[in-house]
Amino acid sequence: MKATDHSISGLILAAGAGERIGEPKAMLELADRTTLLRSQKDVLAESGCTRVLVVTGAADEHVRGVHADLDVTWVHNEEWETGQFSSLKAGVDNVLETNESGVIVLPVDAAGVRPDTVGSIIETALRNQHLDVIIPEFQERGGHPVYLSRGFCERIAGIDSAGDDARLDAQIRKTANVLRLPVNDPGVIRNINTPEEWKKHLNIKS
């Protein structure tokens, strides 16, 4: 089911260089030559996110050039080499400049999540507006994408990216209003880090 009449955006974290896989993961191609970034954007858009933001870092100009027609808000993280938390902060800062009530955070390498799964997370957030975080889980394993409320985003924005607790999981552990949402979608626990994992994902998709 597609959620509507809300202001929850989607945020794709795609700033890494993809050193282990040999290229930025945003540029990986599916069998139909669609890039992983384009595919992830479609997932968020089809799920009902009001807009989609993409945080870039390594190969920023190349990634944007290949996806010049993509209907997204581009956010460049100049500090991408410090780690994913700085990219999360860059995206969150943009969200906080709007009236959006929350954000669905999807790392670009969390491949294979279904749009209806994201839609279920959005609907759960709308029905439970006291929640700060919603984590989908498959077979009792937590995964992505993660929903963050506006209030939680404000907390993230105030954290020093170089600090010891500059990690999303560390901040979630400090938060009481967290829901782990069981879903029937193995894609929520799938991450692409190596060429072998990408080949396996392509076989699953085909």
CATH homologous superfamily - what is it? Spore Coat Polysaccharide Biosynthesis Protein SpsA, Chain A
Low-confidence stretches: none
Distance between the termini: 24 Å
Total number of helical segments?
Answer: 7
Overall residue-averaged pLDDT value: 93
The best one-word shape is: globular
CATH class: Alpha Beta
Query: Structural class of the secondary elements?
Result: alpha/beta
Order of helices and strands: EHEHEHEHEEEHHEH
Can you tell me the number of structural domains?
Answer: 1
The assigned CATH architecture is Alpha-Beta Complex
Please outline the major beta sheet: 8 strands, mixed
Helix content: 25-40%
- Radius of gyration equals 16 Å
Characterization of this structure:
The protein is α/β, with parallel strands linked by helices and about 210 residues long. The chain has a single domain, classed as Spore Coat Polysaccharide Biosynthesis Protein SpsA, Chain A. It is built from seven helices and eight strands. The protein has helices at about 35-45, 60-65, 85-95, 115-125, 150-155, 170-175, 195-205, and strands at about 10-15, 50-55, 75, 100-105, 135-140, 140, 145-150, 180. Strands 1, 2, 3, 4, 5, 6, 7 and 8 form an eight-stranded mixed beta sheet that branches. The relative contact order is 0.19. The model has no long low-confidence stretch (mean pLDDT about 95).
